Amino acid sequence: MKEFSWPVRVYYEDTDAGGVVFYANYLKFFERARTEMLRSYGFEQDRLMARDNVIFVVRSVSIDYLKPARFNEQILVGAKIIENKKTSLTFEQTITRQHDVLCNGKVRIACLDAQSMKPKLIPIAILEQLT
After folding, report:
1. Which sign does the torsion angle of CA 119, 88, 59, 47 carry?
2. What pLDDT does residue 2 have?
3. Domains of the chain, first to last
């Protein structure tokens, strides 16, 4: 499967009082990488919703925190699809700083009908580009 990486600068707002990234913000970094991955293949989520009546939502997350990221560091957020089903994708995601793995996780994304919020087949064009 294709791999994607997105550089992120850690801002003050991402950290706690000790200058360490607040644990929930790693999920935001994961989200940004997945969004930028879609964008890099020409898929804007607002257009998918308006044109194809498709939205993607997080179904489940598993994350391991290994080392802290700190204020003003440059980190790299990776995303790789490790499983694709008719209505969901599972991503393996990793955040690194140079050669150090800071955290890794698995995120399962469900494709839903934007109106009914029920599962919907992932558009073929997206699957062809991402997998």
Report:
1. negative
2. 83
3. 3-130 (3.10.129.10)
